[in-house]
Design a protein that fits this description.
Blueprint lengths: L1 E2 L1 E4 L15 H14 L3 E5 L5 H13 L4 E7 L2 H10 L6 E8 L2 H8 L3 H16 L5 E6 L6 H14 L3 E6 L6 H14 L7 E6 L6 H10 L4 E4 L13 H10 L1 H4 L1 E2 L7 H12 L16 E2 L2 H9 L18 E2 L7 H10 L6 H17 L5 H14 L1
Parallel strand pairs: 1-10, 2-3, 2-9, 3-4, 4-5, 5-6, 6-7, 7-8, 8-9, 11-12
The protein binds 3-methyl-2-oxobutanoic acid (KIV) and zinc ion (ZN).
Zinc ion binds next to loops.
Length: 385
Amino acid sequence: MRKIYIFDTTLRDGEQSPGVNLNVQEKVEIGLQLEKLGVDRIEAGFPAASPGDLAGVNAVAKAVRNASVIGLARAREQDIEAVREALKGAQDPCLHLFLATSPIHRKHKLRMEKHQVLETAEAAIKYAKKYFDKVEFSPEDAGRTEIDFLIEVTAMAIRAGATVVNIPDTVGFMSPSEFGAIFKTLKEQVPGIEKIQLSAHCHDDLGMATANALAAVMNGADQIEGTINGIGERAGNTSLEEVAMALETRQEFYQAKTSLVLGEIYRTSRLVSKLTGMVVPGNKAIVGANAFAHESGIHQDGMLKEKTTYEIMSPETIGLKESKLVLGKHSGRHAFREKLIDLGYELTDELVNLAFAKFKDLADRKKQVADEDIRALIEEKLIET
Ligand code: KIV
Ligand code: ZN
């Protein structure tokens, strides 16, 4: 089974979510939890962005011992120097350089011709290699870059000494088949590609970030970049818990796995939500409040008979105690009776039927019926009889 390296960028791209600002202590707290989760690489920030971010990256670099700590830099010497400063004390430092390559970015943002992009990136990688063994290079907006130019850029990055080439779908424009095809082409056509790791970095503008990352895996990607809870610039990044659980649940299909400690997923998600202030939507895959909750009577009956009828993974795997059977207007007698037993009531069939009718009336009026509602309803029925 092939190992997929997990590059977590919650503290960098994740922190680029509008309204999120983590202080040094919060970055360290999340960094240490990511270490417990077993991620291979932690991008702790963009040191040239501000003195506070440099301090945050430095504190994470000193605290984390069991994952490589990474700082982001533009293809400029001052940015590389800021990362050098920030990664002092890191056990396994790595520099992440980026420069845009797509025609739109070349024309409007960089105002550079192709040859200037190649020269600038090459000079920056060579400069970085004087100080770092591990250098990742990202051709920003690779998804919208001409494939021939992307091949040329990747080959240049390998010759200049990059150890990882990351392919970002910066604006979340790709579909899984297109994104997968880029990896296939690079693997087949770039000389020396076997010497480096190829990585995927996806954004979720069209809701494709996880699907695109998995398409990259199917086509030879060695590393997936993403964030916890999928937070990040605009619609966010690939959600790492989704990738990890997709590979875990469909191991035979993907023939690949991560070395994440899956039982730490839920705890990590809660911590990131608390410290970033970004609420996890109830229906979010894997970590949303409803991800292991069942409301309809048919589903609850199935779950009570055999959990695999409606669950493809168990909540315990991600560190949750159990699935929830939520009582509402779609719930059936089977789940209702189980709830009564849980609450300590052993009633005759006749009483259960009477209480169930009352419960349905109440459920029509309330979205969810809580344990206290059921208790009140049963006590009332017991007094009446
Ligand atoms: O989305 C992007 O292109 C990035 C790069 C810095 C890798 O975040
Ligand atoms: Zn990004």
